[in-house]
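User: I need a structural model of Acyl-[acyl-carrier-protein]--UDP-N-acetylglucosamine O-acyltransferase from Alistipes timonensis JC136 for a docking pre-check later this week. Nothing fancy, just the predicted structure tokens so I can convert them on my end. Input:
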Amino acid sequence: MISNLAYIHPDAKIGANATVEPFAYIAGDVVIGDDCWIGPGAVIHDGARIGNRCRIHTAASVSCLPQDLKFAGEITTCEIGDDNDIREYVTISRGTASTGTTRIGSNNLLMAYTHVGHDCIIGSNCVIANRVSLAGEVHIGDWVVIGGHAAVHQWTHIGAHSMIQGGALLGQDLPPYVIVRNDTLRFAGINKIGLSRRGFTPERIAEIHDACRILFQSGLNYLNGCDEVEKQVPQSPERDALIEFIRTSKRGIIKPYESKSKEE
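Assistant: Understood. Predicted structure tokens for Acyl-[acyl-carrier-protein]--UDP-N-acetylglucosamine O-acyltransferase:
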């Protein structure tokens, strides 16, 4: 299961039934779980903590040194959960002194050429398409979909169940359940199809829609909009998560909806 043409440092800890293909490189301060597949030419650097049943494809680089001028060689980690599919030429930087770790949950698909910067936090069940670039300390919730060639600015937060269209250059926080357009970076509706696929009831989706209508289409500023949502929309975990996300945003929230006639 482990090729004689691969290099594995004697201090590395490799789980049961792991496969390591020719020309892969695994450094010493590495832990890899059971039933993982490490593809040809993949590089697993010091600090990697990889869960079970992960697939790391050709020439991917996991836990590589941060691309951060402040990084001074401190000992940090890159923690990856179970059942992740990390495709060709993906780069995932380990943490810096800022937080100490880059963290990725479970059951994610990171498509070819994706870059995950230092100290990022990515939840579970996300799909991040080809050539997406995440700057340092980006936070992404569960069940997020990011279209190809999108880029996300440092410190930006992306809420759970949201969707970013391909080619977007996102520099402000994206609340949960919301779709953002790539041309204007404005609110473009809620992720109804995704929510339905994940078991949200029609009633709960309608409540999320009502909350977002108040927040993004009423003309109120976001803080006043949160107050109005609390008055008009029944309490639920989704409503509260949406309000909390907006009230605690540090970078500001994406622009509200604007009709095409106004845009023109």
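Before docking, keep this in mind: The chain has five helices and 27 strands.
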